[in-house]
Amino acid sequence: MVIQTDSEEALLGKSLSELTEWVQQQGQPAYRGKQLHQWLYQKGARSLTEVSVFPKRWRETLADQPLGRSTLHYRSIAPDSTRKYLLRLSDGLIVETVGMPTDKRLTVCVSSQVGCPMACDFCATGKGSFSRNLKAHEIVDQVLTVQEDFQQRVSNVVFMGMGEPLTNLDEVVAAVKSLNQDVGIGQRSLTVSTVGLPGRIRQLAQHGLQITFAVSLHASNQPLREQLIPSARHYPLDTLLEECREYLQLTGRRVSFEYILLAGVNDLPEHAAELAEHLRGFQTHVNLIPYNPIQEVDYQRPSQQRTQAFQSVLEQEHIAVSVRYSRGLEADAACGQLRSNN
Ligand code: SAH
Q: For residue 42, which of 123, 128, 151, 138 has the smallest C-alpha distance?
């Protein structure tokens, strides 16, 4: 296996103007930047030797130029057609990506880190170790890989794979920009999900992106949230919600809240009422996620009846709410089930 350590050199993730600059540094005319851009982002080139519009002599000198593409380590397909990929990065680490086709859409769930440092109690990723942040091009690569495998354009990307996007803010923002400008996915079709870290939601808002933004709330009061999410100890619920309000003001985009439903823990009608109280007057949308089982803990998924009861309480309070029945459950590819093995 070739270990490529200098990932700074990867061409993937670079914008049209950066690629143009790069070809010019190589003594080539500017228009080759546009060709390179097209081959990287549209044609899925994995080596510059494939770029047949480039002069053969020049191409041959570029055989070792890293592009920043991963290699497929493992793929599984669930009965609902969800595909889970384990991708090998240039340093040998493995990252997980999920492709979810629906009628006309193809949604990719990307990882932003190898592992996750947040250690949420209900999440398989948090039970494993944290290795490192992903570079922007390693995030873009996941989307291109799924697009190539399905031979269908990716319509949506959700940053809901392994990792906490806001602990890797700069690379995540760079990846969002590249997915938007280079791959051609609309910003509103890109969703960043976070468990929330003090000050980071504001920092993201300052980038003024028009992405869809979701916060993993998961609890209706601070003690319960701390029990489920260790990092919440440093981030009072009120402060988190205040930053979310600021996010809306700065970007004009509403914030969605994800709320995992754990039977008997946070799924009672009184929890729903308490949640509604916090969200009163807040332009928002709540996404309920019935718990997907993981080995390490014995939480239970609530019955459909309980889920609906929770939903009704929110609806009565005029809060927009939907239930996300996760896809890919059979392939261990659903929310919270991602880990770096198969
Ligand atoms: N770190 C980010 C990105 C992960 S997104 C975040 O916390 O938002 C994945 C979503 O699935 C999050 O809302 C996460 O809390 C949720 N999740 C984690 N484990 C789960 C499980 N076992 N069942 C259902 N949802 C889970």
A: 151
